[in-house]
Amino acid sequence: MKELELKYGCNPNQKPSRIYMEEGELPIRVLCGKPGYINFLDAFNGWQLVSELKRATGLPAAASFKHVSPAGAAVGLPLTEVERKIYWVDDMDVAFSPLANAYIRARGADRMSSFGDFISLSDVCDRETALVIKREVSDGVIAPGYTEEALDILRSKKNGNYNVIEIDPSYVPAPVERKEVFGITFEQGRNELVIDEHFFDNLVTEKKELPEAAKRDLAIAMITLKYTQSNSVCYVKGGQAIGIGAGQQSRIHCTRLAGQKADNWWLRQSPQVLSLPFRSDIKRADRDNAIDLYIGEDFMDVLADGAWEKLFTEKPKVFTAEEKRAWLDQNTGVALGSDAFFPFGDNIERAHRSGVQYVAQPGGSIRDDHVIETCNKYGIAMAFTGIRLFHH
Does residue 391 carry a catalytic annotation? Predict the structure, then answer.
């Protein structure tokens, strides 16, 4: 198959629409559904991300994509009991596979953003992963294959219209890529940069210790950024992205946005949130939305009289700013990656408040000394990679 006709492009008025190969055949098969233009953009970016994560870590990997940027990415490490609860899988009587764990963690980091995602899996989709996917609101999935049982489960989703794409894992794209904007063709060499264990060797701070887990998390951050719309910043902990700030014009806004998402991920694990007395008829998506409001500045939207009764069996106490700060101060060991240099130390100040202890960035700012000094103030280890990772 050299080409596949699509319903429309980015918007319904953009017709005709297709994907096609100038030479050879498309490296994909559509096993179910009818994926659209944006679905394929998410699928192909996500497939590159998870393939690279698998190569870098040796672990199954998954990504949750929305609008050509990842909402989450993770490798297949085991879930803690708290993670099973905050990711709403504690009710599933399933022995999750490493691949299922990877997707649960990728989806769970920012469940608000992952709602209606396109999923990318590094390995053949198994039954356990398919069971998790089936219960989430999602547009589709791409993987190098599917077990028979997994495919049957996925084909039953959305009344048989769920998008399931199989990609040839041996496919290698041409070394030069092109795209057209305003009738003008742009051409560049593909970003084939390999992020390996030596990518973080140039430690420029007083703190020189970089544990293996921190190297893994920094690699996850940088690989995630490689496929995230720039400017972008990524916080990672325990093998999963916990906060991604994408497409912001100012780097400090990226750092703040991603930091707030990382804070929300940690606040969801607090006793105050874990003990919220939700009514049994409240769906998971509505719980996610309620938690997001409860831990934010608009908490009265769910705690006001006439509002809390719709969600809870009893009125929760206010989660005060002081209580939240005390809980956030317990978060440590977070890794932070940036796709370009930090121009000011304010990015490090903000990152420190979200438990960041390890940083990787290209370096090259005229204020590098100030950024390094800020890291030294907090005992943060920072590596200069010398490589920018813009993605547009």
Answer: no
> Which structure tokens are listed for 188?
């560049």
Residue 183 falls in which region: left (phi positive, over 0), alpha (psi -120 to 50) or beta: left
347 is catalytic: no
Instruction: Look up the CATH number of domain 3-167.
Output: 3.40.140.20
What confidence score (pLDDT) does residue 193 get? 93
- The one catalytic residue in 39, 45, 66, 261 is 66
DSSP at 312: B
- The residue from 45, 231, 289, 331 that is catalytic is 231
Catalytic residue among 67, 134, 158, 315: 67
Active site residue 231: yes
Give me the catalytic one of 198, 208, 317, 392.
392
Angle between helices 148-155 and 127-134 (to 10 degrees): 10
Q: How many CB atoms lie within 10 A of CB 135?
A: 13
| Residue numbers in the chain where pLDDT is lower than 70 | none
Please confirm, yes or no, whether 66 is among the known catalytic residues. yes
Domain extent listing, the chain: 3-167, 176-267+328-384, 271-318
Query: Nearest 5 degrees, angle CA 153-CA 50-CA 126?
Result: 25
Of the options 3.40.50, 2.60.120, 1.10.3210, 1.10.287, the CATH number for the domain spanning 271-318 = 1.10.287
